[in-house]
Write a structure and sequence with these properties.
2 helices, mainly beta
Length: 133
């Protein structure tokens, strides 16, 4: 017995899009789109025509100033005014994480009395993604 693994629709060689003049089905009410082939992206590249599908997806962005390890006793002992030392020197860049994945580094700034991050470096393990372009 074989198990078919689901394929990633973005990993296919050729995709199809509905033509603007889609025909109607046998009932006359259900549209049946005509298939038009779309060229596959260059090897390892991202097809910008497919990327538009994800533009409205919300992602969780967090900024990490630094890290520290504490015992449960130390955490329970925290009170207003306590200082938690972090593993980074003052003035070093902060990490910008997208859904928990490091995507950029930057510096903390203040904009209209709120904290913000000025991106100074885009970090990507996959240069074909084209972040920062």
């Amino acid at each position: 017995m074989t198990h078919d693994t689901p394929q990633d629709p973005f990993a296919t060689e050729t995709a199809f899009t509905a033509a603007p003049d889609a025909a109607f089905g046998a009932s006359g009410h259900d549209p049946v789109p005509a298939a038009t082939p779309v060229a596959a992206p260059a090897a390892g590249g991202v097809d910008p025509r497919r990327l538009h599908l994800l533009r409205e997806v919300e992602l969780g962005i967090s900024v990490e100033l630094g890290r520290s390890r504490m015992t449960v006793r130390e955490v329970l002992g925290l009170a207003p005014g306590a200082v938690v030392e972090l593993d980074r020197p003052a003035g070093s860049p902060v990490d910008v994480l997208v859904n928990g994945t490091l995507m950029a580094r930057g510096e903390v700034v203040v904009v209209d009395d709120e904290y913000a991050v000025r991106v100074t470096e885009v970090v990507s393990s996959d240069p074909s993604v084209g972040l920062g372009a």
